[in-house]
Amino acid sequence: MFFKNNIQNIIKEKRHYYAPILNGLLEYETWKYFSEQGFIFFTLPELNQAYAHKKLVFEFNIDNTEFELNNSQAMRMTAISSIYDKVFSINRCFRKETNKEKTHLIEFKMLEMEFSINQEKDIFILIDNYLHYIITWFNFYIQNNHLETIFSPKETKFPIACKKYENIFEDYLKHGKKLNFDRYGFSDFDITNDIKEPLYITYYPHEGNWRAKKKDEKYSFLYNLVLPYGFGELVEFSIRETNYEYYESKFNLLGLTKNYQWYLDAIKNINTIKAGLGLGIERLGSWLMNLDKIDDQLVFPRTPDRR
Prior knowledge:
alpha+beta, two-stranded antiparallel sheet, globular
């Protein structure tokens, strides 16, 4: 059987040996950290169980078998958080990914969370504290296992700096470059090669995410955490819109009210400010270990050019 990180490489090179181990430990440490912070862990189905029209999901081929798959569990997590408040899941995520850059996979592990906040800054504090914990753990692990010649300790300034999307957009225009932003999201590769530290990008235009609460007539409470040196986006997060009439009108327009009544019912129970995020475990691992390719930490990776 062929697989990318073959047995001989794993046996002969410590980097190939420890990278998959660190990937697994990173998932465990993430689970442990948020469990200790009072978040409740839920395992959700990987395959899409939605009743919606097929155009709203995508088909995916694995081993000559067609599946319809979700690329996110965010709506389900919101529904669960209407009862349990602070919840998270670490699930397999599938995307029909065509980008062949070193930071992309078509199958990966996604941390998804939904939780109540008192004010906007609470989200940034939560992410900063988690990353500080993970970096501290990572540095201790490589030092304790004498792996400093293989992996370098990670150093990051906290709190992580923030910059508004419109200010970044204006800065790039001054240098004759226009950022690529469409209804599918911000192209993080426009800036990831230009920054030297992780950066929060705040207040994207409304088109970025239909579940993000509007900040004003143009921008939303929608954010990204982008990694430096070409590693791309790590976290997409937002303050959620929780207005029942807003979602009801959206679903009515799409003719999907019956299919998503479970979501509407959940929204009725929400009376706090809700936030949510999605974080790619492999993306974080590749940045921590400074891997040339994201799939170097996986034994059986699925990449856009290796299905």
